[in-house]
Write a structure and sequence with these properties.
alpha/beta; binds ligand LQZAQKY5; Molybdenum Cofactor Biosythetic Enzyme, Chain A; 7 helices; about 15% helix; 6-stranded mixed sheet; elongated; 4 domains; Molybdopterin biosynthesis moea protein, domain 2; molybdenum cofactor biosynthesis; binds molybdate ion
Length: about 400
């Protein structure tokens, strides 16, 4: 007897519990895009390092906001004014320039009338007076934590790290991923596919999904449904941190992935998750030279492969990369069409969200790539959910899948 299929959250938790974070390396900021910080990042400087003007105009001293004033110098970005201001004096100041000592107000040039070195108010002084002043440390202070461990390094985070005085960042080594699809019916060349064959599309799809993260991805296959062919393929996986197979995960006579993994030395973690599509998912591990390799055996149906890669492979890779939050998050939207009652398996329906309402794709078969490619979300339907009316709330997961142009 087999264990019953696991609930999704339990299966995800069991997979992520297998993760041993990869070693830390320091990379140049230019190479850090999309990776995750391995340690909290502290500021090595204060930003701004002094009070700066946020506008082009004139700086004046405290209690001297009525004018007129005499312009006694200039503070430009990168060229501060050395002196301090007395009553009746102003300094020409540009955006980003350092505020002169004892200046308390910047009046924008649109509110000033100038004749030679003499200026007077033509509009209103700013209210409050410091409105156009960025105080020292507005963004962050020296030694302050600017990013937590596990933060994803997108463009804004990289800019923040540079601003905080860092040229190199601690991240986890990029995982090495081996993607291999299997099946006797698969043709490697889609332009040369015989009548009894189908083009092998899962390998390319899964590799493309993994490459959306900073991983080293290698592909082999399609591999025939034969123990020796699978053994030969797995023999190339010694260096991989993660091995992703597709196909041969079910119960048929030709579904050999589980026995092939066992013959290779892998130990089964669990098999089958109570989701549709994607039930026959395999998770296994192999200890190799003191390192743990994790195997994800994804079901062969193309949509099942995609959905399980989304719910398991990407979170696994994010966790290996050190992400603080590796799992995708669902968000609530309104249904644009009614949904039928669901069966006993939690279902991930391919659907199109037009940023107002969500409607399921017409074809929900787990082989239907056209419906998947047209979709941008998965509707998460609980097991045994009753029929739902248009306008009711549903939860969806965002697929970074194109979907709608
Ligand atoms: N008696 C049962 N039969 C099946 C069960 C079950 O519980 N009892 N589960 C079904 C479910 S659910 C799924 S999902 C599939 C998954 O089976 P496998 O992982 O063994 O996948 P295959 O049989 O190898 O292939 C299924 C399907 O997908 C096509 N395929 C496979 N690989 C690729 C590829 N790389 N590119 C494109 N298409 C691929 C393949 O041709 C088959 O049509 O099992 C059900 N059966
Ligand atoms: O669950 Mo399967 O993955 O129906 O296609």
């Amino acid at each position: 007897m087999h264990e019953p299929p696991l609930p999704l959250e339990e299966a995800q938790a069991r997979l992520l519990a297998l993760v041993e974070p990869l070693p830390i390396e320091r990379v140049d900021i230019d190479g850090a895009l999309g990776r995750y910080l391995a340690e909290p990042l502290r500021a090595r400087r204060t930003q701004p390092p002094a009070a700066l003007s946020a506008m082009d105009g004139y700086a004046v001293a405290e209690d001297d906001f009525a004018g007129p004033w005499r312009v006694v110098g200039e503070s430009a970005a990168g060229h501060p004014f050395a002196g301090s201001l007395a009553r009746g004096e102003a300094v020409r100041i540009s955006t980003g320039a350092r505020l002169p000592a004892n200046a308390a107000c910047v009046i924008v040039q649109e509110d000033i009338a100038r004749a030679d070195d003499h200026i007077s108010l033509s509009g209103e002084p700013p209210s409050p007076p410091h409105k156009h002043i960025r105080p020292c440390g507005l963004d962050f202070h020296m030694d302050e934590q600017v990013l937590p461990a596990g933060a994803r390094l997108g463009p804004a985070q990289l800019a923040l790290a540079i601003s905080a005085g860092h040229r190199h960042l601690p991240v986890r080594r990029a995982p090495r991923v081996l993607v291999m699809d299997s099946g006797d019916e698969l043709a490697a060349d889609p332009e040369n596919c015989r009548e009894h064959q189908v083009p092998a599309s899962n390998g390319a799809m899964l590799a493309a999904m993994a490459r959306g993260l900073p991983c080293e991805v290698q592909r082999i296959g399609p591999v025939p449904d034969a123990m020796d062919a699978l053994a030969e393929a797995l023999a190339q996986a010694d260096d991989a941190d993660v091995i992703v197979t597709s196909g041969g995960a079910s119960v048929g006579d030709h579904d050999l992935v589980k026995p092939a993994l066992e013959a290779w030395g892998a130990e089964l973690g669990f098999w089958r998750v109570a989701i549709k599509p994607g039930k026959p998912l395999i998770v296994a591990t192999r200890e190799k030279s003191g390192r743990r390799q994790i195997v994800l055996g994804l079901p062969g149906n193309p949509v099942s492969s995609h959905v399980t890669a989304y719910l398991f492979m990407l979170p696994l890779l994010r966790a290996l990369l050190g992400a603080a939050h590796p799992l995708p998050q669902a968000f609530p939207v309104r249904l644009g069409a009614p949904l039928p009652a669901n069966g006993g398996r939690r279902t991930f329906m391919r659907a199109i969200w037009d940023f107002d309402t969500v409607s399921p794709a017409a074809v929900q078969d787990s082989s239907a790539l056209a419906a998947l490619a047209a979709s941008n979300v998965l509707i998460d339907r609980p097991a045994n959910a009753p029929a739902a009316e248009a306008g009711a709330q549903a939860h969806v997961f965002w697929l970074e899948n194109g979907g709608i142009a």
